[in-house]
Amino acid sequence: MKNKNPLIGFLTLTLLALACANPLGTAAPQGESPNVETVVAATLSALTATQPPEAAPQTPPAPVDSAPGLLPRSMYFLSNDAAQISQVFRLEQDGKTLKQVTSEPSKVTEYDVSIADGSVVFVSNNQMFLIDADGSNRRMIFDGGAVDENNPFLTRINSPVFSPNGGTVAFGHKGLNFYSVASGQSNRALEDSINDSGGGLFFPSELYWPETYSADGSRLIITLGYYEGASSAIYYPNGGALVRLVNEQRGIICCGDYSLSSDGSVLFSASPTFGMFAGGMWRVDANNGNVTTLLLGDYDTNPAEVADNPFIAPDGQLYYFHASIPNPGDMVNRPALQLVRSAADGVTGRTILRPETFTTMNEALWAPDASFVIVANAPNEQIYFGGAAQLFYTDGQQAMIPLAPYVESMRWGP
Question: For 272-285, what is each residue's pLDDT tens digit?
Fold first, then answer.
């Protein structure tokens, strides 16, 4: 249907965002097949999310037997507690010792962990809190105020991100903000651009929120959220320069689905679906924002080459999930991906590392040395966030190790 008025278009975007937004396992409506348009909707999901916990585990996640020192660092994630409230949990390096880190009366919607000292910053009830690594010393550091449910992107706090030294928390609230842990003060570096259409109708022209810092803290990758789409940019905290992407074409490079090289100079991004935007894999020069297409899956490519969750390893090899499929002439969603490794161009020496296919993977957390990847696999294709945590070794010789029945928003701790 063409000739939709802007309000209907925005309401549709918001509804899609709600369907995709961090619901701790809430299923999409039966019969629907979210595709890359779902990714577009998710550009506002952190700002519009309401998070029913019904499909999350009905009991706190239980650890399983595993080898001592299984994990290189502790692993954090969101899951429901015994009261069915979303909380932050920590799985220790043995892969079985589990600790509930937060005990909030309202669900924790987003969080991050400081790799410097294990402090945790999290958002609950549109307030941002900071706690020590052991869960003590809880203090509110920012209050976003009441959320306008008709225009939640106006005031919702989202995407807190620690700087590598733990001294700063970047977060989204009416723009890109930075909170100083030492001084307790915050400042807004970039202001959201909002169109006021009158009568209480507001439309996002360009929104800003952080995703990840480079290892040295000199660069911050941010998402740019639009009325119908999204992009990324590189923000330089020292000086305030903003480098936008160039030559994206039909790519969708946003929302944290990427990997930074160890020196922060190159970003790899991927998308396994195409429809409103192309699927494939891209390389971004973080110095100038120039985008190079490595793989492409679109209506006019046959086969369609799509990928997901790329990771550039310390040795320069690129690990990712890949599928090369006959072009169906229609939107592609949930292709059967396989774990592969190649040179940094995404093509040379590409090798399939394991026999499994992944059709319900919702996120992945890579070992720092790429020796394994932890995948959150949903129980079915209609659930688009979270899933059972399963560890897959990239040597292809060892069996999968189950870690927890439900995880979401996995992070490495210190």
Answer: 998 888 999 999 99
Q: Where are the domains of the chain?
A: 1-51+107-244
Tokens of 148: 């306008």
CA-to-CA distance for 101 and 98, rounded, in angstroms? 9
Nearest partner of 282 among 313, 324, 317, 245, judged by Cα: 245
206 exposed, middle or buried (CB, 10 Å; 0-12, 13-18, 19+)? middle
Q: pLDDT tens, 45-71?
A: 433 343 433 445 444 454 444 456 899
| DSSP secondary structure, 8-56, as one string | HHHHHHHHHHHHHS--SSPBPPTT----HHHHHHHTTHHHH-----TTS
Measured between alpha carbons, how far is 44 from 42 in angstroms, rounded to an integer?
5
Residue 5 burial (10 A CB sphere; 0-12, 13-18, 19+) = exposed
- Please report which helix (H) or strand (E) contains residue 6, including its range: helix 6-20
Q: Is 184 left (phi over 0), alpha (psi -120 to 50) or beta?
A: left
Task: Examine the pLDDT at 293 and tell me if it is beyond 80.
Answer: yes
Mean pLDDT score of the chain, rounded to an integer? 86
153 compared with 369, residue with greater pLDDT: 369
User: 352-384: buried (b, 16+ CB within 10 Å) or exposed (e) per residue?
Assistant: ebbeeebebbbbbbbbeebebbbbbbbeeebbb
Return the structure tokens found at 149.
């449910």
Instruction: Note the pTM of the prediction, 2 decimals.
Output: 0.85
CA 391 to chain centre: 19
Amino acid 380 reads: N
Name the residue among 179, 130, 123, 126 with its Cα closest to residue 154.
126
